[in-house]
Structure formats: structure tokens, C-alpha cells
Amino acid sequence: MAAPLSDPAALALPVVYQDEWLAVINKPAGLMVHDSALARGETDFAADRLRDQFGRKVFLVHRLDRATSGCLLLAFDRDTASTLGKAVMAGDLHRDYRAICRGWPEADFDVDHPLDGGPGKPVKKPAQTRFQVLARAECDWPSSGFASSRYALVQAQPVTGRFRQIRRHLKHVSHHLIGDTSHGDGRHNRAFRMVGIHRMLLHAHRLALAHPASGEALEAIAPPDAQFARALAYF
Asked: pLDDT per residue over 77-86, tens digit each?
């Protein structure tokens, strides 16, 4: 029997790493991190779940888009959160994403393209993302007059942290992120839905930093969910 939605165990998020100062959880795709202007009546947020799950205050160090899964870093006290926040600002929090995009881009490419801050924030600021192609696939469904469709599995490393940066940078170079209904290519999104993949294919795979208390290197890796793993099987 399925657990009721009010059951704390059913709402618990997978923990990738935890100690007395901080934790890294594997946020599922489709869950908003916290309430915002984009929530539009949503009442289920990762921040609230985590507060109940750990039974203490939590301080989110960074954000992930609702449709993005993977490593989400949080602190358990204000001082640790402040230290981690400074690490983010200094570029000392390293995040590797996995993304599946349309086309076959060159093996390594950087996108340096200013982006605004999203709704209500029209001022554009510098934005840079580094990309590396990890694998390529050619699927036997037609696209744009071709008999098959080409896709790439890429690693994305955002240098800056602008609104929907990876998604918008991939669109800028015409290698749209699969499953992205805001900045993607609807034809390719529909092709993946036809094979049972209904999520945006962006996953925060790895997070690395110096531990704020010990200074030792800390690495956390979040495994992909079943639908992302199904997409990876094409590679």
C-alpha cells in the first residue's frame, strides 16, 4: 500500500551526505526548492520538507530549478551557511551538471553570454558556462527532414549563477536542453515523451567544496532518477 502524502517518510528526500554542520540531498525533478514568485499556488517545497525531515532549521546555500534534479547543499546553522555562502560567491563551490541536448556540439565549448535575472529583473549581467561532451547518440526517429536525430550528453560547469543559466546558454548555441518546455525545442521534447521520458534532462551530478569546519575536501555525487537513467541508456 502506498504511503499517504502526509507521511513524513513518503516526503523525505534522499540524503547524499550529512554531518553536524551540513547536508547534501538529491532533490527530485519537479519539486520547488522554496516559495517564490514562480510558485503560482504551489504548497510543496524542499525547504519545508527538509526542516521536517531533519527536525531542525535548515539554511539553503544555493538553488536548483524546479525541473532540475540532483545535489542541493544546505547548512544546519547560520555561521556555516554564511561560510558556505562566501564560498559560493568566491567560486569555491564546484558543481558539475549532466545535461542531454539536441545536436552534436564540439567536444569542449564555452558560452559567454549575458543573461537577465528572470521575471522583474531585466538587467543583464555577465554569465559563463563551460561545457564538455561526454557522449553522443543518434536515435532512429526523424527530425527536421532527417531520418534520425542526434543528441549529446554534456557536462556543464556554470562559472556564474544566473537565472536558468545552463538552459538558456544551451538555447543560445542552438543545442536546446531536452525536456525544457521554456527554452527547449518542442519537437525533440515530444520525441522523448514518446519513449516515456517526461522530465527535463538536467541533473546536478556532483558537488565539491572544502568543508567549512575541517577544511578537508568534500565531494558528493547524486545518482540520476529512473527517467534520467532511461535517457542515459541511449548513450
From this structure: 999 999 999 9
